[in-house]
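Quick start: read one record
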Amino acid sequence: MNGCFASAKPNAPAALDDELERMGRIPLVICDEVAYIPFDPEAAALFIALVSSRYEGSILIVSSNKTFSAWPEIFGDAVAVTAMVDRLVHHAEVIVLRGDSDRLKGKGKEVMGSETNR
């Protein structure tokens, strides 16, 4: 890593480097439902570090119910998100799914309800 992750813990940068190196030996990492809830700044920095460390070296699959244009608000840093998305989509196959959730199929009114029924 490039030392951009300041921490109050003296061994934190080395521990992060070690963990990213260990994860780099895992052939496939899947991050499901990224951006489902906002990231705190430290978690955002760690996720960006993960993406950067796997760029062009290891397979990373990311799923999200948010478009990339919504990610700056979720991660809190538009510049870092731009760099991260650039790494994610370079050499990638981006698949966009549209439509209703399969989990809710046939249960719309029962599960989602409506304001007029209350």
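Helices lie at 12-24, 41-54, 71-75, 78-89, 108-112.
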